[in-house]
Write a structure and sequence with these properties.
homotetramer, 148 residues, 5-stranded antiparallel β-sheet, globular, HotDog_dom_sf (chains A, B, C, D), 4-hydroxybenzoyl-CoA thioesterase (chains A, B, C, D)
Amino acid sequence: MPAYQYVHDVMLRDCEPSGIVFLPRYFDMVHTVIENWLDEALDWPISQILGSDGLTMPFVNINAEFPAPSRLGDRLTWRLSVRELRRSSLWIELSATTGAERRVTITGTLVLSEAIALRTRRWPDPIAERIKEYLVAAEAKSGKQVAE
Amino acid sequence: MPAYQYVHDVMLRDCEPSGIVFLPRYFDMVHTVIENWLDEALDWPISQILGSDGLTMPFVNINAEFPAPSRLGDRLTWRLSVRELRRSSLWIELSATTGAERRVTITGTLVLSEAIALRTRRWPDPIAERIKEYLVAAEAKSGKQVAE
Amino acid sequence: MPAYQYVHDVMLRDCEPSGIVFLPRYFDMVHTVIENWLDEALDWPISQILGSDGLTMPFVNINAEFPAPSRLGDRLTWRLSVRELRRSSLWIELSATTGAERRVTITGTLVLSEAIALRTRRWPDPIAERIKEYLVAAEAKSGKQVAE
Amino acid sequence: MPAYQYVHDVMLRDCEPSGIVFLPRYFDMVHTVIENWLDEALDWPISQILGSDGLTMPFVNINAEFPAPSRLGDRLTWRLSVRELRRSSLWIELSATTGAERRVTITGTLVLSEAIALRTRRWPDPIAERIKEYLVAAEAKSGKQVAE
C-alpha cells in the first residue's frame, strides 16, 4: 500500500477546553504530514519550494469527515496517498486513525503555483515521478469520493 | 438576507512565508465567526455552552473551496448562514469575500453533544428559534452542495 | 495616560483542556495588540511594513508575568505603552486585566530591521513622532523593570 | 550534562511572511519540548497530569532572548534543564540552537496546581526524583540569570 505514514500524539496545543482536538489543529497536523512527506518521501523540502524554487502550494479545496473526536494523548497515525496527479495540481487523501478507529478522513487539492504571481506551474519531472509512488489504485477511489 | 457578518483583517499570525493565508488559519477564523455568532446572534456564548451547560459542538464534516488566496492586510468579510437545522446538528455555510472577490466558501455540520460522554443532544428550544433566523431559503441551497 | 487599548474576549482557540489560556496564545494576543496599534495609532499597517517598506519588526527579548490564569469567555483589556524609543528599537510594555485583576504583564524589545538582510533600520521620522505619544513618563518606569 | 534534547525543523506553520519564525510559535515549540520531556524523561504524560491526576502546570513568568531569527527549514535543537526544583514549582531553562548559533534562550517558572481550584500542589515524590536528574549545577546558574 502506497501511503506515507506519520505519527502524531495529541498535545495541549491541539485541544480545546472540552478536551477534544480543536478543528483548526487537525489542519495544522495535515500540513505537518504534507511537509514531512514532501521532505522525506519526495526529497523536496518546503523551504526549497518556497525558497530557491520560488513556488507555493496552497489548497484550493478540502473535504473532511470527523467520525469520532480525538483527545489529549491520543496517538494518531496519519496516512497520505495521492488520488490523482494532474499537470499542476495534486488530489490527495489523508486519514488519521487511533488503533482501529477512524478519526479523520480528508481529501483535497493542492495547486503548484509561482509564489509571486500565483500562476500555476507544472510539477518538475523528478518530483512527479516520486509522487506517482503514492498513487492509490484506480479501483480504490471509485465509489464515493472520500471512500477509504 | 439572513447572514451573520464578521469582518477580519488578515494578520501576521494568519500568513505563511509566501505571504498568503495558511490553510489552518482559515479554520481559526471560521471558529471565531461561529463563536461570535453564538454569542452575539444567539445570546449563547461558548463559555456557557462548555461551562454551565456541559456541552460541546464539534464539526463532523467540512467542505471548503478556496478560489483565490488572501494576503496580509486583506479585509475579509465573513458571512454565516444556516442551511438546515436538525434535531441535534446544524448544517451551516460560511463565506469570506474581499470586495467582490470570493476567497472562501465553506459548508459544514456541527453536532451538539454532551461534553463528557459526547452523546448528541437536542437544541434547547429558545436557541433553535434564534437559529431559524439564519436559515437560507430552500431554493438557495438546491443544486450543488456548496453553491453560493 | 498614553496607553493604547484593545479588548479581546478569550475564545476556544486560546484555551487548553484545563480551561485556561494556553501560554503561546497570550503571545498571539500580544501580536494582535501590536499590529492593531501599528495600524490604528501609528497609521503604519503591518502589511505596509512587510510589503512596500520591506521591513520586519521581530522581538529580541520578552519578559512576562502571569499573576493569575484567564479562562474561556474572560474579557481581557490589553494596554500598550512605550517605555523607550531608541534609534531602531522600541521597548514596550503590555498588560492585560479583567476587571481589577491583572492577568499578564509583559515588557519586550522590538527591533526594526530590513526584511531580507535583517540589518537594523532607523524609525521613519513621522512614525517616531507618533510613537512618542505612547511613551510612559520617566518616573513610571523607574524601580523594578515590569512595574506598571 | 543534564539537558533533555528535542529537535524541531521549522515548518510553514511556524513562520510569518518575512520568512522568520513568528514569536508565538516559539512558545508553541517550548510547550512541545516540555510535554515531550514530561512524557519521555519523567514518564508523566500531560494527558495523565490533566486527566486522572486533575492537575495543570501553567507558567507564572517567562523571560526570553532571541539573539538571531530562525527561518523556514532551520533545524532547531532545543535543550531543557531545571534551574531549581521548589515545593510546587519549577524554574526551568530552555535554549534553541542551529549549529553553533544560539536562536532562543528562555527561563521560566511552571507551577503545579489543581486543575479546578488552581491551588498549588507538591510535586509527587517519584516525579521530584526524576526532575532532579535535569538540575543544572549550582555554579552554572550563578552570574547572569539566563547564562547557559
